[in-house]
Specification:
elongated; alpha+beta
């Protein structure tokens, strides 16, 4: 038989890894793990932001249903939308919790105006409970108004569409690291026909 001669002895071959190779492998592995951890943080922040948006949508739908359920408080004598009871301009505060009318939840009942006030109190308290929003942000950003062009940010007080808009602050991991906890402002805006 024919034997192949390579010129090297089998006794001189390396049988393991050098320390340098092990260190390089550990470094590559640690960079990969850091990347996965960073991706997990971004994913968690995105999930939290999505959760805030979902809550904003659900709470706004709740207010819309409250307004539609109290039609006498939203319509004037001619049947046209009138936001004297449910309206809120930028800079105005919501009614205070101390103004809740307990009779609205008993058999005696309450007036349409009192029910509208209760609806706004409960809605604003729900917003503060589930979103990172303060009383100041509600005062300066929340608006419930009539608007002929509901796709714009400003309210014109005309038309029959009711616009509901409010903003809250979302801080990302990068914002917190840079000591800027309220850098990202999210706004939810919708409109409907009562």
């Amino acid at each position: 038989m024919f034997q192949h001669y390579s010129g090297f002895s089998s006794y001189g071959r390396q049988l393991g890894m050098t320390l340098l190779e092990v260190l390089i492998a550990l470094m590559v592995l640690s960079v990969g793990i850091l990347g996965i951890a960073s991706l997990q943080m971004v994913s968690l922040q995105s999930t939290t932001n999505s959760n805030f948006n979902t809550h904003a949508m659900m709470l706004t739908d709740d207010l819309i249903e409250r307004i539609r359920g109290n039609r006498e408080a939203i319509l004037d004598n001619q049947g046209q939308p009138d936001l004297d009871n449910y309206g809120k301009a930028i800079g105005d505060g919501f009614p205070d919790v101390a103004d809740l009318v307990a009779d609205c939840y008993t058999n005696t009942g309450c007036s349409d105006v009192e029910m509208a006030s209760n609806d706004l109190i409960q809605w604003s308290e729900s917003l503060k409970r589930v979103l990172p929003i303060s009383d100041d942000q509600l005062t300066t950003s929340a608006v419930i108004c009539l608007d002929a062009s509901p796709d714009t940010a400003a309210c014109d007080g005309l038309g029959s569409a009711v616009k509901i808009a409010f903003s809250w602050s979302e801080s990302t991991l990068l914002d917190r690291q840079n000591a800027n906890p309220a850098a990202t402002v999210q706004t939810y805006m919708t409109s409907f026909e009562p």
